């Protein structure tokens, strides 16, 4: 009896704590369970597609398959971008697994200079998601949303919430999750269009584009084309300052790469237009949708 009462009391206290726990004013914190579920579903669902978009965070935050499909009706499209992803064997294997052999068989490569470095080609984020144990995957997909209310809260934070004095974040990072398309719309308020320049400058001073990765990509394009896969490539739009930084420090001549991809049998797409960046690297959701429609139209014009 005593054990039952103790258990009941513990449950009541836990429920009371969850009820009293303040809602975080930070949208990034509030979105964390959905963020973890997004990567679980994206990596481990069994769908196959007519069109895949490959690349790094400028792709998974910047390309909306649904908006692309307005110019490509009937195609099943999916965004296969991952954080700091690169064009290396693991990405190629995932593309082969996801591309429907009976479909339109189209690959769209969103190539940033960083995606052709040796570090990016290791695809650490994709490896991490693929290697998660089943128990963790199940928790991320089904349970974490409910556990969020049970996470520990500092007494100070609770007291601030009760008094209405919780400090506001210095910035608000919003992200939502298109699980069906593998796209993560995002935006930063207020925008900080130079925020990413320092980290990228430091990275390219330590590591530049790998000629071996460029050569391997061109070989892979030739292989895909020989197998009947249509290959399109583009440079994801970013801020003018970031473009200038990458052109100066990355060691990649993007114009020459475009010519080499076409010589290998692919099609290089130059998408006109101005697209603002909220952090100097990524597009806000509204600009990403607009770019995605232009990208889809550019592909449709080549068919």
Description of the molecule:
Helix content is 50%, strand content 10%. The protein is α/β, with parallel strands linked by helices. The protein has one domain: 3-Layer(aba) Sandwich (Rossmann fold), CATH 3.40.50. α3 runs antiparallel to α9 and α11 runs parallel beside α13. The radius of gyration is 22 Å and the shape is globular. About 8% of the residues have low confidence.
Write the layout of secondary structure elements.
Blueprint: H1 2-20, H2 27-30, H3 32-44, E1 51-55, H4 57-60, H5 65-68, E2 77-81, H6 89-98, E3 106-110, H7 118-121, H8 124-131, H9 134-147, H10 155-163, E4 172-175, E5 186-189, H11 197-206, H12 211-226, E6 230-234, H13 240-249, H14 254-263, E7 267-268, H15 285-302
Parallel strand pairs: 1-2, 1-3, 3-6, 6-7
Antiparallel strand pairs: 4-5
Keywords:
303 residues; alpha/beta; Rossmann fold; two-stranded antiparallel ribbon; 50% helix; globular
Spatial extent as radius of gyration? 22 Å
Give the count of helical stretches: 15
Low-confidence stretches: 4-21, 157-162
- Give the CATH architecture: 3-Layer(aba) Sandwich
- The separation of the N and C termini measures 74 Å
What is the domain tally?
1
Summarize the structure.
The chain has 303 residues and is α/β, with parallel strands linked by helices. The chain has 15 helices and seven strands.
């Amino acid at each position: 009896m005593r054990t039952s009462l103790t258990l009941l009391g513990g449950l009541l206290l836990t429920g009371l704590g969850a009820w009293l726990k303040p809602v975080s004013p930070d949208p990034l914190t509030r979105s964390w369970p959905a963020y973890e579920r997004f990567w679980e579903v994206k990596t481990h669902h069994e769908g196959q597609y007519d069109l895949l978009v490959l690349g790094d965070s400028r792709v998974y935050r910047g390309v909306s398959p649904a908006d692309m499909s307005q110019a490509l009706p009937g195609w099943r499209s999916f965004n296969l971008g991952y954080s700091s992803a690169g064009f290396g064997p693991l990405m190629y294997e995932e593309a082969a697994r996801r591309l429907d052999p009976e479909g339109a068989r189209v690959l769209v490569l969103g190539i940033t200079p960083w995606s052709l470095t040796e570090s990016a080609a290791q695809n650490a984020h994709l490896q991490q998601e693929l290697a998660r144990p089943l128990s963790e995957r199940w928790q991320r997909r089904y349970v974490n949303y409910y556990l969020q209310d049970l996470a520990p809260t500092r007494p100070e934070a609770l007291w601030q919430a009760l008094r209405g004095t919780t400090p506001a974040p210095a910035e608000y990072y919003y992200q939502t999750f298109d699980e069906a398309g593998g796209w993560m719309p995002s935006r930063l308020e207020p925008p900080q269009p130079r925020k990413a320049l320092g980290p990228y400058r430091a990275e390219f001073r330590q590591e530049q584009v790998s000629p071996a990765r460029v050569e391997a990509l061109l070989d892979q394009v030739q292989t895909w084309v020989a197998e009947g896969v249509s290959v399109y490539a583009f440079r994801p739009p970013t801020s003018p300052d970031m473009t200038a930084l990458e052109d100066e420090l990355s060691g990649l001549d993007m114009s020459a790469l475009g010519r080499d991809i076409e010589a290998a049998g692919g099609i290089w797409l130059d998408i006109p237009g101005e697209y603002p960046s909220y952090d100097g690297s990524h597009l806000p959701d509204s600009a990403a949708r607009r770019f995605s429609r232009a990208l889809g139209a550019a592909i449709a014009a080549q068919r």
